[in-house]
Design a protein that fits this description.
The structure holds 2 protein chains of 2 kinds. Chain A is mainly α. Helix content of chain A is about 50%, strand content about 0%. Chain B folds into 2 domains: about 30 residues; about 140 residues, Nitrile Hydratase, Chain A (Alpha-Beta Complex). Chain B is globular. Chain B contains 11 helices and 4 strands; from the N terminus they run H-H-H-H-H-E-E-H-H-H-H-E-E-H-H. In chain B, helix 4 crosses helix 5. Classes of the chains: A mainly alpha, B alpha/beta. Chains A and B meet through helix 1, helix 2 and helix 4 of A and helix 1, helix 2, helix 7 and helix 8 of B.
Chain lengths: ~100, ~190
């Protein structure tokens, strides 16, 4: 048996070296209209039993690395929501094309 | 500053919403109503909870025993939210809340998390060098005070109960609540009387 891969998953940022010298940007701006809309949609889909927070995370965490760090926060959420709704057959790929 | 969403993301949201509303699953009116509820959540509710806990022993007990009940007593809507734990700062222990894996935050109580809470830098550094991170807020914790960093998760959320500052003897609840900022509730700041 080979040694297990101990590289942390992409989203597992606790203690990650790559941000060691990055100051925390003191950005206090509230989410923009897009972010608030995605946030409200996420809450409603959860209330309707169409997704859980763990599924949301799985969707976010499956975004390829280059996009994970390039997309905005609520853009990552939206990508996950869209993927989940297609996976579950709630909407179709064609609906989103 | 957080970058604005790209046009393809705005288009994707519009298409997803159009499909969901055509199927009668989510309407624009429901989105607006839900947003109004989220907009109403605010660190001010957390601040009032802290001020009452400082002045009312029975409320403090409730807060430590059942965060949801204590929050709802102050007007928060907690239904459907994960449990809320309360971390008590003492003269020898300070707490800092972070979500290293994503951005778990007591949204139902404090509202939208600030951008910095979700930033890669905060998530990675808070557990590694919390004193250096706190220094960026101008928050200095003496070396003889332990800093305990608590990971907020999808299943359990936290807020900090800071220490009541000296020099506030006799202050009423409203005046005390005015000292408690969102930063103090997350643990990056401290309430100050002066």
């Amino acid at each position: 048996m080979s040694e297990p891969d101990r590289t942390p998953a992409l989203h597992d940022l606790g203690g990650a070296e790559r941000f060691r010298c990055t100051a925390v940007e003191p950005d206090e701006a509230p989410p923009d209209a897009f972010g608030k809309r995605v946030d409200a949609l996420r809450q409603l889909l959860a209330q309707r039993g169409l997704m859980t927070v763990d599924e949301l995370r799985r969707g976010i965490e499956s975004i390829p690395e280059a996009e994970y760090f390039a997309l905005g926060y609520y853009e990552r959420w939206l990508r996950s929501l869209a993927m989940l709704m297609v996976e579950k057959g709630v909407v179709t790929e064609a609906d989103l094309a | 500053m957080a970058a604005p969403p790209r046009p393809e993301s705005i288009a994707l949201l519009d298409k997803l919403m159009a499909a969901l509303s055509a199927k009668g699953i989510v309407t624009e009116a429901q989105i607006a109503a839900r947003q109004a509820i989220t907009d109403k959540a605010s660190p001010e509710i957390g601040a009032r909870m802290v001020a009452r806990a400082w002045t009312d022993e029975a409320y403090r007990d409730l807060l430590l025993r059942d965060g949801h009940a204590a929050a709802e007593q102050m007007g928060a809507t907690m239904a459907g939210a994960p449990p809320l734990g309360v971390l008590v700062n003492t003269p020898t222990r300070h707490h800092l809340v972070v979500c290293t894996l994503c951005s778990c935050y007591p949204r139902a109580l404090l509202g939208y998390p600030p951008h910095w809470y979700k930033s890669f830098a905060f998530r990675s550094r808070a557990v590694r060098e919390p004193r250096a991170v706190l220094a960026e807020w101008g928050t200095s914790i003496p070396d003889n005070v332990e800093i305990r960093v608590v990971d907020s998760t999808a299943d359990f959320r936290w807020m900090v109960l800071p220490q009541r500052p000296a020099g506030t003897e006799g202050w009423d609840e409203a005046r005390l609540a005015g000292l408690v900022t969102r930063d103090a509730l997350v643990g990056v700041g401290l309430p100050k009387a002066a």
